[in-house]
Each structure stands twice: as C-alpha cells, then as structure tokens.
Amino acid sequence: MKKLILHLILLFAAVSFIYPFLWMASASLKPVAEATSMNLLSSNFTFHNYIAVFKKIPIGRALLNSTIVAGATTASVIFFSSLVGYALAKLKFTGRETLFMIVLFTMMIPGQLTLIPLYTLIVKLGWVDSYPGLIVPWMISGMGILIFRQTFVSIPGDLMEAARIEGAGELQILTKIFWPLSKPAMVTVGIITFMGTWNEVLWPMMIIREQTMMTMPQMITMFAVGGQAGGDLGIQMAASMFLVIPLVIAYVFFQKYFIEGIASSGIKG
Amino acid sequence: MCRIYMTIGKEKNENIGYAFISPYIIFLLAFTAYPLVFSFYLIFHRWDLLTSPAFVGLDNFIFLLHDTQFWQALLNTLVFLLIHIPLQIFFSIIIAMVLAEKIFARTFFRAAFFLPVIISGAVVTILWQKLYATDTGIFNHLLSLIGISPVGWLTSTKIAMPAIAIMATWKNMGFYIILFLGGLLSIPGHLYEVSRIEGASRWQDFWRITLPLLRPTMLLVVVLSTFGAFSLFIEPYVMTGGGPLDKTMSVVLYMYKHAFLFQHMGYAATIGFALAIVILMVVLVQKKYLGKETEY
Amino acid sequence: MLSNLFTIFLLFSACNCQAVELLYWSSSNTEEIKLAKILVNEWNELHPDIHVKVQPIPATGSSEEILLSAIMSKTTPDICSNILPAIMGKFIESKAVVCLDRFKDSEKVIVDRTGTKLTDKFRSNNGKLCQIPWKSNPVMLAYNTEIFKSLKLKPPKTYSEFINVAKSINSDEDGNGILDHWAMKVSIKTVWYQRLFDFYPFYVAATGGKTLLEGDKAIFNNDGAIAAMKFFADGFKNRYFPMLGFSRDTFVDGKTAMSMVGPWIIEYYKRLNPNLKFDFAPIPVPDNHKGPVYTYGDPKNMVIFSTTKHPDEAWKFIKFLISKKADLKLLELTSQIPTRAHIADDAYFKSFFKKNPLLKKAARQADFVVPMDDSPHLIQILDIISRQFEAAAIYRVISPEKSMKMAAENVQNIYDYW
Predict the structure, then answer these.
(1) How are beta strands C79-83 and C20-26 bridged, if at all?
(2) What residue spans in chain C does CATH classification 3.40.190.10 cover?
(3) Is the bond into C292 cis (omega within 30 degrees of 0)?
(4) With an 8 Å Cβ cutoff, are C73 and A128 in contact?
C-alpha cells in the first residue's frame, strides 16, 4: 500500500516534468486554432508548422552551425584539455604545480567579469560573425583539464614506462594508452562541453548578427521573441523542437553517461 | 649508463611537458589573462566602441553606487535565491529519498526528472512563457478549474520573480535529485540499523542521520544555485525584459543592456566587475557558514 | 579536424567575386520581408551585374540595438531600410553611414520625391543628407466599427469623451467577475521603443506637436505630458486597458475595441483576422485642446552603411527602391505610407487611395506628424520614459507629476554624465 502511494506520487511528479515537453511537441503539430489547448492529441495533426519554419528562417543552416560549433569545441576541449591534464599528471617540468594552481584559479573567475572585455577582444580580432569567434574562446576548459588530470594520476606509471622503452612518444602514449583507459572521463567532458555549447545563447547573441552564422538557440530566440514568428505559437514550438530533438535522441541512447557525467562535474555551474 | 638515460629522459620529459601545455598557455594569455587585465582598463574608462575611450577615473563606480537599477537587480537575485533554494532542496530531497527506495522503473523516473536539465534554457523559457500566459496558459487554465481567477504570472510585480524562480527550480531539479541520491546512497546502512535498535523512529532517523550527512550536498546545491542565480539572463530577457518595475531585472541582463543597448562598454565592465566581487564574497560566506560541522 | 572545419568555413564565406554583391537588411515583419523579396527579385533579374541579397534584420530585441552592435563590430550590411531617423545622430557621430552628397543626383532624386520641407526634417546638423526618407506610419486610434456601431458610439475626440466611451465598452459578458471586453489595448511591455506607440503620440497630440528635447534640454515636463500620463494612469486604474499578459492581439480578437496603431496593421490584420472591421480616428486630446491633432509619424528611412565596398551600386539600388513603382508596391503589400510630398493627391496613386479609404485617412494624417528627437542618447531617454510610464501609469506607484519631473531630471543627468 505504501509502495503504491510512493509510486503514485512519483508518477505525478514525473508527469509534471514530462508533460510540458509533450505539450510542446503536440502544439508544434497542431493547426493555429487548436495550438493553445491542453489536450495532447488532436485529429488534425499536421506538419504545416515545420514547413513554415523552414520557409521563414534558415533553420537547416543553424543546425549545421550548431553541429559544427558544438562538435569542434568538444573535439578541441577533449584534445587540448587531455594534453594539459597529461602534462600535469605524468610529465615533470618546472612550474608544474604553479600551472595547476593557475588552472584552479581560472575556474574560480566568474564568467561575468571577462564577458565584456572578451567581446571587445573578438571585435578587435574581427571574429564577429565567424566560427572562430564562436569556437576559439572556449577551446580549452579548466574543468576538462581537472577531470583529465585526476583520471590520469590514477593510471599506473608502469604502462607508460613500458611504452617508452618500446620507443613510443608521449603523444602516442596519451592517445594509444591513456585515452582508451579513461573513456568515462572523455565521455563526461565530451557530453558536458557539447551540451553547454549546443545550448549556449548569451555568447552567440553577443557576437553574431549575420543570420547564416547563427546557432540554433539564438535563431530560435530571435524567431520567437523578435517577431518573425508573428506570435504564432505552433510555429515557435516547431522551431524549438529542432533544438530539442537531437539532444533528446542523444539522451535516450546515452542517458547513463549524461546523468553521471553531468552530476560528477557538479563543479561547473 | 643508467644515470645518463635518466637525465636525458628527464630533460626530454621537461621539453615535452612544455610542448603539451603551450597551446593552453597561449589560450590562457589571450582569452583569460588579457580580458582580465583589460577589464581593469575598462572600468576606469568610458567607451562606446565607436569613438576612442575616455579616462574617467572612478566615475563608473560612483555612478554604480547611485544606480538604483543595479541594486534592484542584486536584490532581485536575492529574492530569487530565497525562493529557489528552499524549494529546490525540499523537493529534491523528497524525490531523491523516494528514488532511493526499491522502486519500480527507477531508471525511467530518474531519466524523466533529468530531462529538463539537458534542454536549452532558451527553449525552456519560451515554453514556460506560453504556460504562464494569462489568457491561454496552462497554469491559469488549471486555476480556473478550481474557480480561481487568472493570475498575471509574469506581469504582477509580486509574482513575476517567484514565477521565474519556480521555472528555474523545475529546470534544475533533476540535477540536484541526482546529487542528493548520490549523497543518500553513500550513507552507511549500519547507522540506521543501530538507530533502529535504539528505538528511534524513521522521522528521528531523518533528522539525526540523513539530514546532517547530506550537508555537503546541500552546500553544493546552495553554491551552484547561487552561481546560477547570478548568471540569470535568457529567462528575464525572453519572459519579462526585466519588468514589471525592474522586479525581474537580473544583473547580467542589466550589464547586457548597458553594453548593447546604450553602448556603455566601460560601465558594463564595471557592472561585471562588481558582480564578480559580490559572487566571490557570497560564496566565501556560504562556505564559512554551511561548510561547518560537515563531519559527523 | 579543426583545420578541416575552417576550410569549410572559408568555403561558405567565399564570395562570388565576379558580380558585385550587396547585402540588404529589411525589417523583420512578414509583410516587409515579402515586399523586400519581391523588389529584390525584380532588381536581380534586371541587373545581373549587381546582385542583391536580402535578409531580415536579425533582431532578438529591437533593430536599433542590432544595428548599433553591428556598427560596433563593423558588420553592418550595405543597405538597411529600417532606420529610425532619431538614431541617425549616433550613426553619423560614429561615421557609420555614407552621406549622400557624394552622389551627384542625390539632392534632386530625394527632393523630387519627398519635397523640400519634408526632406529638410531629415538633414543632419551640418545640412547634409545622410539618410534616404522612405516611409511612415502615423500612429492613430483604430476602433472596431462593429463594436462601436452596436453600442451606438462615436470615436472619442477628447479624454472625457474617451472615458464615456470606455465605460460603455468595458463589460463582463459571462458574469464571472472578470472583464472580458476592454476599451483599448495598451501594451504593458516596458521595452524602450513601446512608448513611441502609446505615450509619445498622446504627448505629441496633447502639446500640439512638441517633441521631447530642445537641443540638449529636456522640455517634456509640461502640462501636456502630465495630462497624457494621467490619461494612461486613469485608464489602467479603471481597467479600460487590460492588465493581463495576453499571448494574442486583443484588438484582433475583438476583446478590446480600440488600439493605437499605424496603417501597417491594415495588411497585418487582414492576415490575422480578415473579418475584422475597423476605422481610424485622430488621437484623443485633453478637453481644452485647440488646433490640429498632431501625432508621431513613425518614420523609417534607408541608409547606406560605410562598410560597403560598392556605394554607387548601393545608391543605384536605393533609387530603385524609392521609385514610384516600388512605392505603389509598398502601399499595396505593407499598407505603409511612402514619404512622398502630397501623395494623397498624386495622380499615380489616385486609384489606389480610392480603393483604400483607410490608407487615404492615414496619408492625410501624415501631414500632421512630428518625428522623435535625434539624440545620441535616444534609447536611454526612451528607456527612462518607459520606466516612468510603468511606474506612474501601469502600476501607479508614483504620481504622473512626479514621474515626469523625475524623467526630465534623469534625462538631464544623462546629458550631464554620459
């Protein structure tokens, strides 16, 4: 009996978390007249809103941009952060401890402090409306370095020594031995970076004006708030679905990694 | 022989070490150190990015001290936190405790609660704006079913900020549930057994064992929520534009307004600077008061 | 991996360097996008050597904020047709726009179309013309003729007439204690430009055509401003204006009987609710008002940005956009008034105005309009007014007198400080 009540409470709570998204999906498929109704089902489902989105904004281009930006940032963060993490964990050089302190220090700097100067820097570099502007300032992350360092420290040195004697270079050791051994760390860093970049809206809003350079969140905010959607709820929801669907698909497949990865990196606000 | 090998190895190691960190050093200089230094330049200047910067001494700070909108924005952040943190902790702990029991379809429930966490804040905000709409929104529809007249969720000076705080709680709860779940599962089971033998009730268990041992997690929740509150932007930007009567104006939105609406780069940098100091102070204070007595 | 991506990026950004290419930003509403696309297609067919690409202004907030940040980062398009003349001071100060004296025929082309008197309104301080007058949308009172007929009402001319009319329109049909019909739609958004379409036209009407500034002096703390602010405060207090955050336009749905709008809504409403019947009337004025009723003209002009590599081609394209033929399309597709001298009497447009009496009314009102002051602090000034409007009218936490006094002080402070 107690179990049943617990399940009912849980079910109610879960519904309140899922229902808004189902409503969104449903509203995106409904004709204008029904869009605001609370019912999830309708006999008049149509793809009209999706077609309208394609006609009104270059959403395909935005999807491509988001994929490029999030993909390149993620690849770069994994590569460069693991490089630094490896150096901090396994290589000996003067100033190593200092560098580690610096990494920790950068993680404590609130982003709000450097946002405006960073923007003026991008303007000076002429990187407004460009992929470098969207990607380069986020190519390495302190959090990534930290996660990789902690993971690499616990990998025994024997493996390294053996490889060195066989004549392997350090880069090879990192990519051939350390990477395969630290897949969970790579997945964690990868998911957090990809999700963060994919969903980021403030930075693109600051540096992108050219419609063909916009990423999805900016495009959709512009579309829904800036008036191009003409106040039509269904179309706004359809546009939002384009942003949500790829991530939800990834989430369904890598749910465990998503949850554990994000939770384990609680440090990142 | 052996010695020579060692020294060569070490020297090589040293060079490779520098090679490995050199991209990071360049990155650090360009995108962390330079903006940091340049922000110190900006806060003493007035600059619209169009004409050349003018040195104004401490004018930006003096203006900030008298800027009621800035202080209102800070106050709003406090209001947000006072609603958000208790709600967040209360509901997250309850759900985490239920999930910690042997529950049917636990993975499904966990995934469901976590769903809003992965969705873009922009989408969540656009979606909730529709749910909060006075005429066609779901909340007012539900209220009308029990005979309550429509509420101006985002237009009432008293309700707008709580409405945003509720939305943020909903969006982030999955994340905190997982944190609390981890905290709960790490509590050694024998503590409860001993307590049971001593004849304590479940309620007493909760207050004497569970809650104190969850303290580190709670500190994390408070700190992370605080960071989140200080970076609120897209929520008021989309939903209210900072109104009504500046009651939902966030500090970052206010900074954005000065930078991009009024072209006050120096002043915007000053707002960012002041905010960074406030954040560091608040986090230090939280650590000091909540960090105590964590060992039990 | 990264280098590959940058190659992709370079491929995308590479231009077709054979023909001249111009980027043209149009306004982002559906009707104007349609007009821009039709005109640009026509142009591209006629001029294969000068290819124009049209894109709606990528605005998340207002177009002015996007244009200013584009200027800051030197990413302005070649041409933009959604320029608020009041922002020109800032544009000229930062050398962001091409002044037209570099084109030999510019004076003649523009004066021929717009007339000397009107053209002079858009000259900058040094007498130069740096913008191309294009169109306006005089803000008027739209009223739902069916509601007015059924209640046997006439459009209100003064504030007290408005109150009488409002009292009979406000109603609670289903008797649940909540109003479902209100007199007039007034936006409760506090974004800075919103006040150009409610408080400012009422201010202009009540003061007989005054603007907010005289040089660097705020002159708007006057009886007209206070009367207008009181009008809005009373309206919100007595619930003549709905205070709810509606997701749809209440005037289109017939929930409010009046709205403050420019003629652009004729086409817009046709799309949203083709059955809506409405007419225009001048803006209500204080009871003791004498003389003609002025309003805000909501002018929008074109500029050529100085980032362009092809100013001459851009000017050529603009001449096409302001030709008589294009102006007729502007009227037909967007129901906005071209900034042409005596357009209502022009033979070329006669048959159009005959078929569209509503637009003729708007075109007549266009003779009695004032613009907004050109100030480098324009957005900040309107932001201040908007916030005082919120405090004094929408939420009524301060009196109209105090709000205008504070607004004038704050505006003066801006001039002193920034």
Answers:
(1) parallel
(2) 17-130+300-338, 140-297+373-417
(3) no
(4) yes
Asked whether the beta carbons of residue B13 and residue A36 sit closer than 8 angstroms, the reply is no
Quote the minimal CA–CA distance from C201 to chain B in Å: 23
Residue in B48, B136, B261 closest to C247 by CB: B136
Among candidate residues C129, C176, C142, the one with its CA nearest the CA of residue C303: C129
* pLDDT value of position A230: 63
Lowest mean per-residue pLDDT among B35-39, C15-19, C401-405: C15-19
Spatial separation of the C-alpha atoms in residues C327 and C341, rounded to whole Å:
12
| Count of pairs with CB atoms under 8 A, one residue in B, one in C | 79
What pLDDT score was predicted for residue C341? Answer: 87
CA distance C15 to chain A (A): 14
Q: Do B134 and C383 touch (CB under 8 A)?
A: no
Q: From 1.20.1250.20, 3.40.190.10, 3.40.50.1820, 3.10.310.30, which CATH number describes the C140-297+373-417 domain? A: 3.40.190.10
Name which of C23, C46, C42, C135 is nearest C83 in CA terms.
C135
> Is residue C25's pLDDT more than 60?
yes
Mean per-residue pLDDT, B134-144: 84
Which amino acid would we find at residue B18?
Y
pLDDT value of position A70:
96
Look at the pTM and tell me if it is higher than 0.90. no
Of residues B243 and C305, the one with the higher pLDDT is: C305
Among chain A residues, CA nearest to B48: A120
Chain centre distance of CA A79: 16
Res C127: pLDDT: 83
| Mean pLDDT value of segment C237-254 | 82
Q: Is the pLDDT of residue C382 over 60?
A: yes
CA torsion, points C264, C151, C201, C31, in degrees to nearest 10?
A: -10
Under an 8 A CB cutoff, do B34 and A121 touch? yes
DSSP labels, chain B: -HHHHHHHHHHHHHHHHHHHHHHHHHHHIIIIIHHHHHHHHHTTEE--SSS--EE-TTHHHHHHHT-HHHHHHHHHHHHHHHHHHHHHHHHHHHHHHHHHS--TTHHHHHHHHHHHHHS-HHHHHHHHHHHH-TTT-HHHHHHHHTTPPP--TTTSTTTHHHHHHHHHHHHHHHHHHHHHHHHHHTS-HHHHHHHHHTT--HHHHIIIIIHHHTHHHHHHHHHHHHHHHHT--HHHHHHTTT-STTTT--HHHHHHIIIIIS--HHHHHHHHHHHHHHHHHHHHHHHHHHSTT---
Are C60 and A126 inside 8 Å of each other by CB?
no
Is the domain A57-264 a CATH 3.20.20.30 member? no
Using CB atoms, pick whichever of C1, C58, C247 lies closest to residue A233. C247
- Mean pLDDT of all residues in C195-199: 93
Residue C403: is its pLDDT beyond 90?
yes
